[in-house]
Amino acid sequence: MTGPEAMVVSGNQASSKQRRQRTLLEFVARSPVGSQEELVELLRHAGFEVTQATVSRDIAELALVKVPRGDRHVYATAERAASGNAYDVRLRRLLEDIPVRVGRSGLSVVLLATPGSAGAIAQAVDQSSLTDQVGTLAGDNTLLVLFESEAALERWLLRFQAFQPAGAAALPAVLASPLTEAPR
Predict the structure, then answer these.
(1) Cα dist. 29→20, 104, 123, 135, 175 in Å?
(2) Where in the chain is the domain with CATH 3.30.1360.40?
(3) How far, in Å, CA of 84 to CA of 77, rounded?
(4) What is the architecture of the domain spanning 85-175?
(5) Helices and strands, number each (H, E), in the chain
(6) CATH T-level assignment (fold) for domain 4-81
């Protein structure tokens, strides 16, 4: 199909997707939703014909994260997750006080900080709502954050940027992905 008919179909699909994603965000904001299956059921009851794969794509596009709530993990927006966790506040404060340069190598993110600070930053990362990492390894001024997949690493980097103060310089190009350095 080409021409005006194709534009109408494409426009309807986009508006349907926007409505579905708005509804999904409303569900996540109103009640603790812990699985994609729960979201599929909620959306179906709201009149959307969706599959788990569609919900999975929506979660990625909306940058939803899982955060601890009571005895389970539930979906939340990155902003809400960051504002609701005392450990996130600690990580944000550390990153305001300690300049951190960020780079990457393979499926690892490399954080360079001031001497003696990597352990505190690693602990703050581990306790924060950043959950895409497999683990952290800290030396004196260097912290490695390890990931299982490229997608997990990319999600983590986007979320980590929200914790850092504005400013930006990266590790040398050898480590590849330029991100930010906290201003001094």
Answers:
(1) 14, 33, 28, 29, 38
(2) 85-175
(3) 11
(4) 2-Layer Sandwich (3.30)
(5) 7, 6
(6) Arc Repressor Mutant, subunit A (1.10.10)
How does pLDDT run along the chain (184 residues), one tens digit per residue? 554 444 444 456 668 899 999 999 999 888 889 999 999 999 999 999 999 999 999 999 998 888 777 667 888 887 776 555 677 778 888 988 898 999 999 999 999 999 999 999 999 998 888 889 999 999 999 999 999 999 999 989 988 888 887 653 444 433 444 444 444 4
List for the chain the helix, strand, coil content (%; round to 5): 50, 15, 35
Q: Which residues contact 60 (CB under 8 A, 6 or more apart)?
A: 151, 155
Smallest Cα–Cα separation from 76: which of 58, 64, 60?
64
HEC secondary structure over 6-57: HHHHHHHHHHHHHHHHHHHHHHHHHCCCCCHHHHHHHHHHCCCCCCHHHHHH
pTM of structure: 0.50
